[in-house]
Amino acid sequence: MEKKEKLYEGKAKILYATDNPELVIQYFKDDATAFNAKKKGSVDQKGVMNNSISAKIFEFLGANGVPNHFVRLLSDREMLVRKVQIVPVEVIVRNRVAGSLCRNYGAVEGQVLTRPIFEFCYKNDAYNDPLMNDDHVVALALATEDEVKTIRRMTMQVNDLMKKFFLALKIELIDFKLEFGRCKDGIILADEISPDTCRLWEQGTGVRLDKDRFRNDLGNIKEGYQEVLKRVTGQ
Ligand code: TMP
Fold first, then answer.
1. Are 98 and 43 in contact (CB under 8 A)?
2. Nearest atom (ligand 1) to Cα of 215
3. pLDDT digits (tens), the chain, 235 positions
C-alpha cells in the first residue's frame, strides 16, 4: 500500500491518498480542540490510542452488520479506510444529559433521558456546527430523504450496539457523534469513534473517561484515554 499526497487535514486527523483510488489512509494526530477550536492543545499519544480504539469499535460494528469505512490498521497512528464523500452533518445521539444539552437547555448533567435524543448538526466550523432538523438537511440538499432515513436507522443501531459493548466493559455511553459517507455501495459509517467523539463514564463511579477531561480541565487527560484503550483491547 503506497502512501501518496495529503488530501485533507482536519483538527484531529489527516487523510492521505493511496495507490488505490477507493482507499485512503486516515492518520490520527495528538492535537485536541474544543468549543469549535476556541480551545487548543494536544494530548500525548492520543492519536495512537484513538486509532486503536476506533479500529476495535469499527470491527465490532462491522461484525454486527453496520457497514463502515474501516479496512485494516496500518501502523500505530494509521488505518486504511474506504474513500467516501462525507455527508456534511454530524449525527449525535444522547442517552444521558451532558455537554451542550446542559448549556443550551439548562438540563441537569447525568439525568437519564426518557428516550435517546437524535440530533443533526451542520458540519461547518464557520457557522459553529449549528443544530438542524431533518427538514434542513433535506431542503438544503445535504442529504436525500432516503439517506436521512438510512442514517437514522444505522445510528440507532449503533447506539444499541455500542451501549452494550461499553456496558460489558463497565462503561456507560452517555452520548456520541457519528459521521457518514457515500460510496458506491451507498451510505456507510465513517470518521472515528473514540473518547474524542463519545462521552464515556465509568459505571458506578461516573469517572469521566473521555475528552471532557480536556474540554473542562479535569486533569489526567491521557489516563482517561488509556483506561478506555485498556478495556476496549482487553490488555
Ligand atoms: P455536545 O454535548 O458538545 O453537543 O457533544 C455531544 C457529543 O458529540 C459528545 O460525545 C462529543 C461529540 N462531539 C464531537 O465529536 N465533535 C464535536 O465537534 C462536538 C461539538 C461534539
1. no
2. 3
3. 899 999 999 999 999 999 999 999 999 999 999 999 999 999 999 999 999 999 999 999 999 999 999 999 999 999 999 999 999 999 999 999 999 999 999 999 999 999 999 999 999 999 999 999 999 999 999 999 999 999 999 999 999 999 999 999 999 999 999 999 999 999 999 999 999 999 999 999 999 999 999 999 999 999 999 999 999 999 8
Residue identifier of the C-alpha nearest atom 14 of ligand 1: 197
Instruction: Among 97, 176, 177, say which to mutate for ligand 1: greatest number of ligand atoms within 8 Å of CB.
Output: 177
Give 131: exposed, middle or buried? Use CB within 10 Å, 0-12, 13-18, 19+. Answer: middle
CATH of the domain at 58: 3.30.200.20
Which atom number of ligand 1 is nearest to the Cα of residue 100?
Answer: 2
> How many domains would you assign to the chain?
2
How many Å apart are CA 235 and CA 174, to the nearest integer? Answer: 24
Burial grade of 84 (CB within 10 A; 0-12, 13-18, 19 or more): buried
Kind and range of the H or E element at 150? helix 145-167
Residue 81 CA, ligand 1 centroid: distance in Å = 23
- Of 82, 109, 128, which closes a domain? 82
CA distance 170 to 231: 9
78 and 135 together in one domain: no
- How many residues belong to the chain? 235
Residue 89 CA, ligand 1 centroid: distance in Å: 12
